[in-house]
Write a structure and sequence with these properties.
It contains three helices and four strands. With 99 residues, it is of the alpha+beta class. The longest helix is centred in the C-terminal third of the chain and has 12 residues. The two termini are 13 Å apart.
Length: 99
């Protein structure tokens, strides 16, 4: 899911800008998976491992506010993070907010 390509582009003073991206709130679910990070873990690699799509790294990032930095794929070693399940609903909510 390429979330950037679908965003509307705004033009201002002959410069092009992407519209601000809004992310859905990701509620806790009984099926969520919790992992403890190890050296070299990255959000995109975890998304590929659990979702078979590295571009869904933002779901893991949004599900762990205050734990995972949103400006980097890299994760500190030894953190317990939540890997949400039910990603189809999360992707649908993302599209409702942005398209």
């Amino acid at each position: 899911m390429d979330r950037i390509r679908k965003l509307a582009i705004k033009t201002n003073n002959k410069k092009r800008y992407y519209r601000h991206i809004e992310y859905p709130e990701i509620p806790l679910s009984v099926g969520d998976v919790y992992v403890t990070t190890s050296f070299g873990d990255r959000l995109d690699n975890l998304a590929n491992e659990y979702y078979k799509d590295s571009e869904l790294w933002w779901i893991i990032s949004c599900a762990n506010p205050g734990v995972v930095r949103r400006d980097s794929f890299f994760i500190k070693t030894g953190l317990q993070i939540r890997i949400p399940t039910g990603i189809e609903n999360i992707k649908r909510k993302f599209e409702e907010l942005n398209f």
